[in-house]
Design the sequence.
C-alpha cells in the first residue's frame, strides 16, 4: 500500500469498509445478512426521532435494500437475543462481543465518572434511591419508568423524571439493561442476568488498556481509513484513553500511518482495508449512519458540509428537517428531506437539493431509491411536496 493516498482512494476505502463497495444482495434478506452488516459496522445508533423511520433501521436499508424490519427487532429484543443496548457511539444496538469491551465505561459510570452531570447524583448522595429501584426490578421483574409511581423533581434532567434519570444511571452503570421496547419506543429495564446470555456475562473483563485498544481496532476496521479523531469518535473514547493505544496499534501493524492528500491530519489505514477500484450503486444515508455521523469526516470524504437541522428553527434551515444525503456511485450528489406520512400512505419529499456537479442520472436514480424506500416502509406513493433544485425534475418522475 502507498504511504500517500488520494482523497478519491480514501473515499473508496471508507465506502468499502462500511459495506458500500459491492452490490446489494439479490436474494431475500435474512438474519445472516443483518448479522454480517452489523458485524461490519459494529453498532447501530438509536435515536428517538421517527419522522421517517427509527435511526437503527436505516443503515441496514442503505446497505441491503428492502428487508423485514422485524428481523432487526428479533435480533435486538427477541428470544434468543443477539444484540444488546448500551452507550457506544451514542445509545446503540451492539453485538455481544462488545459487552466486555465496554465494561470500563460501566465501571466509570458506577463511580459517577464519564456520565452526564445530571446523573452523577445517583452515583453519590442519592445512590440509595437508585438501589431501591434496582431492588424493585429484581423483585417484580421488568419495569419501565412509566410503571413506577414517583414524585417528579423540579424539572428533572433533560425533561426526565427522577425515576427515569435514576434508571438511566443504573443502565449506564450496567446494573440493568433493556429487556424490550414498548409503546412509543420506551425502554423496559431488567437485570442483565435475566436478559443477556450467561455466556456473555461470563466473558472475562479485559483491563482498560486492552479494551480501548480492541475498540480502536474495531473502529479502524469499520472505517477503513481514519484520523485519530475519527477512531476515537466511533466508540466515544477520550484522548488520554485512545492516543497511547493508537500508537500501540501502529507498532503492532494493525493501523498503518498514511497521508491523504487534502486531509491535513495524519490518517491511519487498517491493515485489512482494501481499495475498491470503483464504487457503484446508490443509497439514502440516515443522519446517524456511521459513514457520515462524524460531520468533519463526512466533509473530508465527500466535500460537503452536512448538518442535521432538527434543532434549527424552521426559518433558518437550509435543506430541511430530516435530511438524507443521496450516495450515487461513490459520491454524495443530493440531499432530500423526507417524512413518512403513514396515515395517508405517502413518502413525502419535503425538499430535494442537488449538489454541484450532480450527474444527469442523479434524479432518475434518486427516484428509484425513493420508490424502494416507500416499498420498504409499506407506503403507497412518493409525493414531492417541497422545493429544491431537483424537486421539479423529481416531481415529473413521481408516481401519479
Sequence:
Amino acid at each position: 500500500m502507498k504511504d500517500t493516498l488520494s482523497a478519491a482512494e480514501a473515499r473508496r476505502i471508507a465506502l468499502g469498509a462500511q459495506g458500500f463497495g459491492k452490490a446489494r444482495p439479490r436474494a431475500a434478506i435474512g438474519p445472516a445478512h443483518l448479522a454480517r452488516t452489523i458485524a461490519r459496522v459494529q453498532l447501530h445508533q438509536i435515536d428517538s426521532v421517527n419522522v421517517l423511520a427509527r435511526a437503527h433501521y436505516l443503515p441496514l436499508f442503505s446497505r441491503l435494500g428492502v428487508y423485514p424490519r422485524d428481523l432487526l427487532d428479533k435480533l435486538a429484543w427477541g428470544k434468543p437475543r443477539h444484540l444488546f443496548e448500551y452507550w457506544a457511539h451514542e445509545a446503540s444496538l451492539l453485538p455481544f462481543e462488545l459487552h466486555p469491551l465496554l465494561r470500563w465505561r460501566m465501571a466509570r459510570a458506577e463511580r459517577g465518572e464519564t456520565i452526564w452531570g445530571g446523573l452523577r447524583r445517583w452515583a453519590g448522595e442519592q445512590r440509595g434511591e437508585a438501589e431501591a429501584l434496582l431492588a424493585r426490578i429484581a423483585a417484580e421483574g421488568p419495569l419501565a419508568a412509566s410503571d413506577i409511581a414517583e414524585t417528579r423533581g423540579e424539572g428533572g434532567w433533560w425533561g426526565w423524571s427522577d425515576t427515569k434519570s435514576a434508571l438511566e444511571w443504573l443502565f449506564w452503570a450496567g446494573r440493568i439493561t433493556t429487556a424490550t421496547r414498548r409503546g412509543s419506543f420506551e425502554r423496559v429495564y431488567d437485570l442483565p442476568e435475566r436478559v443477556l446470555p450467561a455466556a456473555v456475562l461470563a466473558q472475562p473483563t479485559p483491563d482498560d488498556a486492552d479494551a480501548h485498544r480492541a475498540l480502536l481496532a474495531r473502529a479502524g476496521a469499520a472505517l477503513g481509513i481514519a484520523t485519530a479523531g475519527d477512531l476515537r469518535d466511533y466508540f466515544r473514547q477520550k484522548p488520554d484513553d485512545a492516543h497511547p493505544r493508537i500508537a500501540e496499534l501502529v507498532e503492532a501493524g494493525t493501523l498503518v500511518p498514511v497521508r491523504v492528500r487534502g486531509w491535513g491530519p495524519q490518517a491511519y489505514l487498517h491493515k485489512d482495508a482494501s481499495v475498491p477500484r470503483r464504487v457503484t450503486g446508490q443509497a439514502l444515508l440516515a443522519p446517524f449512519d456511521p459513514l457520515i455521523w462524524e460531520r468533519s469526516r463526512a466533509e473530508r470524504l465527500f466535500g460537503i458540509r452536512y448538518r442535521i437541522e432538527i434543532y434549527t428553527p424552521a426559518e433558518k434551515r437550509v435543506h430541511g428537517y430530516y435530511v438524507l444525503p443521496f450516495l450515487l456511485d461513490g459520491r454524495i450528489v443530493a440531499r432530500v428531506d423526507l417524512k413518512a406520512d403513514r396515515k395517508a400512505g405517502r413518502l413525502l419529499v419535503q425538499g430535494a437539493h442537488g449538489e454541484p456537479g450532480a450527474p444527469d442520472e442523479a434524479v432518475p436514480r434518486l427516484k428509484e431509491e425513493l420508490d424502494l424506500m416507500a416499498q420498504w416502509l409499506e407506503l403507497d406513493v412518493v409525493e414531492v411536496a417541497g422545493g429544491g433544485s431537483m424537486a421539479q425534475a423529481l416531481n415529473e418522475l413521481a408516481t401519479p
Q: What stands out?
A: The CA atoms of residues 11 and 140 lie 51 Å apart. The chain is about 35% helix and 20% strand.
